Amino acid sequence: MRELILEQSWDEDARTLSVYMDGGGVLDASLLNLPLRRVVPVDHPRMVTTTRAVAERLSAGGGLLYRYLHEEHPDGLPGDEGAFVLCSFWMVDNLVGQGRLDEAEELYDSLCSRASPLGLLSEQIDPTTGVFMGNAPQAFSHIGTIASGVNLERARSAAR
């Protein structure tokens, strides 16, 4: 499966993995899950360039990521979506795995600072206003907070 993904979803022109097995350069932040599910090593050159592409092309600003761009990958749903909180935690995990601990920690702290006064997070955040969108509170966002915090602390402890 790993070889199939690395070869057939690779888009040479975009220099990134794609959500399609024929390449096409269409990005989805769910590609950040490939290393988290042990499908592709986090430090594989194609994963490293995909991580950079996701950070650049799916950025909503302030460390937030869109899951995908509607104009590139229409989902048929009306209206705009916010930035998905869990996707940004996936980015933290990829940065940790690639040894970019300072960037990971800065992003993690930024995401945690967006929690409500009760420490809760929503599914999405409007990147222009910071207003919570979608399901709130959202368990997946909190799972991301915990998992990324554990990954970051383990990496920091190993580096000491």
Keywords summarizing the entry:
160 residues; 6 helices; 44% helix; globular
What does this 3D model show about the protein?
- By secondary structure, this protein is mainly alpha-helical.
- The protein contains 6 helices and 7 strands.
- It has helices spanning 2-8, 33-36, 45-57, 85-97, 101-112, 139-159, and strands spanning 10-11, 16-17, 59-61, 64-65, 83-84, 124-125, 132-133.
- The strands form 3 sheets. A 3-stranded antiparallel sheet has the order 5-6-7.
- The longest helix is centred in the C-terminal third of the chain and has 21 residues, at 139-159.
- The protein starts with a helix and ends with a helix.
Task: Describe the structure in brief.
The chain has 160 residues and is mainly alpha-helical.
Low-confidence stretches: none
What's the arrangement of strands in the largest beta sheet?
5-6-7
Write down the overall geometry: globular
Proportion of residues in helical segments: 40-55%
What is the helix tally? 6
β-strand percent reads 5-15%
Structural class: mainly alpha
How do the strands and helices of this protein lay out in sequence?
Layout: H1 2-8, E1 10-11, E2 16-17, H2 33-36, H3 45-57, E3 59-61, E4 64-65, E5 83-84, H4 85-97, H5 101-112, E6 124-125, E7 132-133, H6 139-159
Antiparallel strand pairs: 1-2, 3-4, 5-6, 6-7
Helix pairs in contact: 4-5, 4-6, 5-6
